[in-house]
Inverse folding.
C-alpha cells in the first residue's frame, strides 16, 4: 500500500494530528531524567507508550537523538521500530538533502525496507535543487513510504530564501510546491510527496491547489499557532493538512496518562 493511502487511512481513523518526540535537554530535566542516553531512552519510550495507536503520525526529531552519538541513534532506531510495531506511522524528522548520489545513500538509510532508521516517511530539504531529491522520491514510492519536502518553514528566517524569485517569476517556495504537485499527479487518495508548510505563517503565500499530497504544518502550540491559524491559512485546502506539535504536548510528561491526555486534547481540537 502506498504511503499516501496508509496516511489517508490513519487520518480517517485517528485525525490529522502529528505529535513530535523532541527530547530537549530542558524537557529531560523537567521530567527528572538524566541528560544522557539512558534519560533519552526513558523519555522517548514514554512518548511511544503515550502516543502509539492514538494519533495518525508521530515525528521523532533526529537531532535530539544524534546529540547522544551512537547510543542516541540506537534509541531512535528503537523508537522507530516500536511505533511501527504498534501500527503507528512514523515520520523521521532528519531534513536530509544532498547531491543526488549521496541522496541515494540517505534514501537507503531512511526509506529502504529493513533499514534500522526507516520509518514511514522522512523530511528532506530541496535547497540543492528539487531534482536532487529524485533518489528519495523513487525509494519512497518503491517501498510504500513518503517524503515531506521543506517548502515554507515555520521559522521567520525561512522567507529570505523561500520568497526569492526565480527567472520565471515564481518564488522558490512555489517552485517546490509545483514540483511536489507534479510528482503526485494522478495519485489517489494522496500522493507520497508531502510538503512542510509552517502553521505560523502570516499568510499562505503559495498555491497548494494542485498538490494532491499531505502538508505537515509544524508550529502548532509552542511556536504560537492555533486552530484559527490552520483555518486562516489552509481554509478549503485543509484536506491532507497535518498540524504538528511537540513541546506543547511533551511538557505534560512524564506521566504516561497525562501525556496521552494532552495529545488527545490537541487531536480533538484539530479534528
Ligand atoms: O518548518 C519547520 C520544520 C520542522 N519543524 C520541526 O517541528 C518541530 C516543532 O516543535 P515544537 O516544539 O512544536 O515547536 C521541531 O522538531 C522542528 O524541528 C519546525 O518547527 N518547523
Amino acid at each position: 500500500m502506498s504511503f499516501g493511502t496508509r496516511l489517508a487511512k490513519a487520518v480517517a481513523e485517528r485525525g490529522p494530528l502529528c505529535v513530535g518526540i523532541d527530547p530537549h535537554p530542558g524537557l529531560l530535566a523537567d521530567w527528572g531524567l538524566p541528560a544522557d542516553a539512558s534519560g533519552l531512552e526513558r523519555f522517548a519510550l514514554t512518548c511511544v507508550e503515550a502516543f502509539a495507536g492514538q494519533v495518525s503520525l508521530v515525528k521523532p526529531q533526529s537531532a535530539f537523538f544524534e546529540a547522544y552519538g551512537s547510543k542516541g541513534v540506537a534509541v531512535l532506531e528503537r523508537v522507530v521500530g516500536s511505533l511501527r510495531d504498534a501500527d503507528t506511522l512514523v515520520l523521521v524528522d532528519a531534513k536530509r538533502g544532498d547531491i543526488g548520489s549521496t541522496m541515494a545513500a540517505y534514501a537507503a538509510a531512511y526509506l529502504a525496507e529493513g533499514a534500522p532508521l526507516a520509518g514511514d516517511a522522512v523530511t528532506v530539504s530541496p535547497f540543492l535543487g528539487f531534482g536532487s531529491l529524485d533518489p528519495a522520491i523513487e525509494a519512497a514510492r518503491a517501498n510504500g513510504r513518503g517524503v515531506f519536502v521543506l517548502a515554507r518553514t515555520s521559522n521567520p528566517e525561512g522567507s529570505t530564501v523561500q520568497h526569492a524569485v526565480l527567472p520565471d517569476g515564481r518564488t522558490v517556495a512555489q517552485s517546490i510546491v509545483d514540483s511536489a504537485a507534479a510528482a503526485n499527479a494522478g495519485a489517489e487518495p494522496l500522493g507520497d510527496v508531502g510538503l512542510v508548510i509552517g502553521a505560523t505563517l502570516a499568510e499562505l503565500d503559495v498555491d497548494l491547489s494542485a498538490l494532491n499530497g499531505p502538508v505537515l504544518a509544524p508550529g502548532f502550540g509552542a511556536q504560537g499557532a492555533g486552530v484559527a491559524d490552520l483555518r486562516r491559512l489552509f481554509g478549503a485546502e485543509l484536506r491532507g493538512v497535518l498540524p504538528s506539535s511537540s513541546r506543547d504536548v511533551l511538557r505534560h510528561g512524564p506521566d504516561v496518562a497525562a501525556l496521552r491526555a494532552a495529545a488527545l486534547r490537541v487531536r480533538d481540537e484539530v479534528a
User: Anything to note?
Assistant: Residues 107 and 138 are 9 Å apart (CA to CA). Residues 69-85 form the longest helix (17 residues). The chain has twelve helices and eight strands. Residues 20, 22, 61, 93, 153-154, 196, 198, 218-219, 221-223, 244-248 surround LLZGTKA7 (CB under 6 Å).
